[in-house]
Amino acid sequence: MLLQEQVATLADMLLNSKKTVVLTGAGISTESGIPDFRSPGGLWSKVDPMYAFSAETFTHRPEAFYQAGLPHLASIKSARPNRAHEVLAELEKASLLAGVVTQNVDSLHQRAGSTKVWEVHGHLRSATCMQCGGQIVWDHLMDKVMASQIPPRCNDCQGIYKPDCVFFGDPLTRDFTEATREVATTELMLVIGSSLEVAPANYLPMMAGSLAIINLDATVADSKANLIINRRAGETMDLLWNVLLRRHLV
């Protein structure tokens, strides 16, 4: 099936669905310059995730994250939303999308204009003191790091600040519980840029009535999908938006 035909089918699925939720992974943000994790040249090929991004390591040696892990997150904070993020925000405004469940911590969905976003792995907008629970915004955390305060400490109690993202071994955020409830009544789930290898977020697509996947490579849920488009997210979502425009539906 040609890409244009696949996108037309996706448009039909979207329009026929009474409730659609999107699940996004690292692949949607690679076009914004953020490397993914598992592919050759990805983040995990540059740093051991169980060393730099482990909750247990952070508890006992927080400097490991700030010295080995934090530098690799620079591209996330400087990235800008791409066309896929923008189209998802427009679909929400057009009442064609109930919301986005994202495994990403880059906040690009919100920056593109999406308002209903469940961040199951947290975000990099702030950090929380592990002792008193006080929070600071990310820029203030970085000010401490740039001043060679590693690990950065709370001004009130001298506790250590931990970014508000999920480390390996951490429980998922409350957003995951909310997303699970939302997906339970979803007719169509659209997966964008995820290999669906990470549990438990990869169980969410199995809860929806039907499933469409946009991803460059095969996913573990391909056998369950009603539609698979192995193309880049930005290109595909832009084509989808144009199809909806031509039909005068947005």
From TrEMBL:
Domain Deacetylase sirtuin-type positions: 1-250
Keyword Metal-binding: yes
Any one GO MF annotation of this record: metal ion binding
Residues binding Zn(2+), per UniProt: 129, 132, 154, 157
Enzyme type, top EC level: transferase
SUPFAM superfamilies: DHS-like NAD/FAD-binding domain
Keywords: Metal-binding, NAD, Transferase, Zinc
TM ranges: none
Entry superkingdom: Bacteria
Documented EC number(s): 2.3.1.286
Matches recorded under InterPro entries: DHS-like_NAD/FAD-binding_dom (IPR029035), NAD-dep_sirtuin_deacylases (IPR050134), Sirtuin (IPR003000), Sirtuin_cat_small_dom_sf (IPR026591), Ssirtuin_cat_dom (IPR026590)
Active-site annotation: 121
UniProt cross-references to Pfam families, sorted A to Z: SIR2 (PF02146)
Name by which UniProt lists this protein: protein acetyllysine N-acetyltransferase
Species of provenance: Desulfoscipio gibsoniae DSM 7213
